[in-house]
Specification:
- The radius of gyration is 26 Å and the shape is elongated.
- A hairpin with a 4-residue loop joins strand 2 (about 170-180) and strand 3.
- It has a four-stranded antiparallel β-sheet with strand order 2-3-1-4.
- It is about 55% helix and about 15% strand.
- The protein has eight helices and four strands, in the order H-H-H-H-H-H-E-H-E-E-H-E.
- By secondary structure, it is α+β, with helices and mostly antiparallel strands.
- Helix 2 runs antiparallel to helix 3 (about 50-65) and helix 5 runs antiparallel to helix 6 (about 115-135).
- The longest helix has 24 residues, at about 20-40.
Length: about 230
Amino acid sequence: METVLAALVSSTGDTTLTTAEALIYAVLAGGLGFIISLTYIKTGRTSKNFARTLIILPMLVCVVMLAVNGNFGTSLAVVGAFSLVRFRSLQGSSRDIGFIFFAMTVGIVCAIGELSLAIIITFVISAIHFILYMTKYASASVDEKDLRITIPENLDYYDIFDDIFNKYTSEYKQIAVRTTNMGSMYEINYRVKLIDEKLEKSFIDEIRMRNGNLTVICGRCDVNEAEEL
């Protein structure tokens, strides 16, 4: 840590890097960005363009900081302005945002000349991502299903299916309610865990008898859907 702080302090002064040294820093940042991109691809849902951007981002951050290495504060301000471009585009998940900061951190550490630290950070954080992915830490249960039931507007949806849920499910939770068909019907979204998968047809049949044979959809939850911060 003392070495890093010393490097940060020294970067505020007049330091001169040769083109060859700057190129080495940038190339290493790009190589570490490639490792970060592979980690992103192997540990969850991916976006082709975002995966490619993770390779380039550490190089850009490193080059920007090297270009203004006479003023460390200015270099950080410029890098911060660049990072806002992502947040002004389509909303991503907290995982995407974490990888952005991961790539930017590696680029900054490479720019101050702490190449060994940048390598250590990359491999340690990547290993943590793989461990969390392999252990399915905080993942939703694969036994849960998404249940959508359509009912006419004259039915009170508050507890209309509770007895059926108690019979066929070990857990159930109402997620959302919305109107459909110009307000003449309600669509209720539940998250359920069936006691026995073989009883799914009987479960749906009883719901159909209760909701007037309107639409019932039961399927696997998307456990990798983008989450809010």
